[in-house]
Amino acid sequence: MSIVENIENSFYPEVYSQSLPKGTELSLCLFQKNGLAKYVLAVKDFDSNLDIKTQIANARKSIRQQTSAMWLLKEIGAYIVFVCDELPDITKSHLKIDRTGFHAVIVQGVHLISKSGDHLFNHTQWLNKSFGGTESIASRLVNSAI
């Protein structure tokens, strides 16, 4: 079983209630609606020929297109997971997350997971508090890769 299949089995339908049709850009897009709030967990292959900032922007665009997200009306919180053969030589600070909600797709977490189970991530937190189950998502992702 692949990492993407393991992630899907780990999160769907227990954490995310819907699995959206796979697009050309995203390997997996899981969706959850909780009241007015909407969240996705999107999985994409890491491209070592592109810088991570560009890849995050491309993933945001793909999520926006696949979910019809719109700023002020239909915002979506997103965890973006990149699957790679081995972790690139970058640090947590390179994994840019949104500090405000002024986007149609609000990037709440970026994760890189290698096929060997190595994991690098950055997620939203205020002071020392994390929200939205980010710690459990991170540990589930690591367990899915191993």
Q: In whole angstroms, how far apart are the ends?
A: 11 Å
Give me the strand/helix succession. HEEEHEEEEEH
Question: Count of DSSP E strands?
Answer: 8
Oligomer state equals: single chain
Strand percentage lies at 25-35%
Largest sheet: 6 strands, mixed
Could you tell me the radius of gyration in angstroms?
14 Å
What characteristic shape results from the CA principal axes? globular
Low-confidence stretches: none
Derived from helix and strand composition plus strand pairing, the structural class reads: alpha/beta
Strand line-up across the major sheet: 1-2-3-4-5-6
Mean pLDDT: 89
Would you give an account of this structure?
The protein is an alpha/beta fold and 146 residues long. It is built from three helices and eight strands; from the N terminus they run αβββαβββββα. It has helices at 3-11, 52-67, 134-145; strands spanning 18-19, 28-34, 37-45, 76-84, 105-114, 119-123, 125-126, 129-130. The strands form two sheets. The chain has a six-stranded mixed sheet with strand order 1-2-3-4-5-6. A two-stranded antiparallel sheet has the order 7-8. A hairpin with a 4-residue loop joins strand 5 and strand 6. The N and C termini lie close together (11 Å).
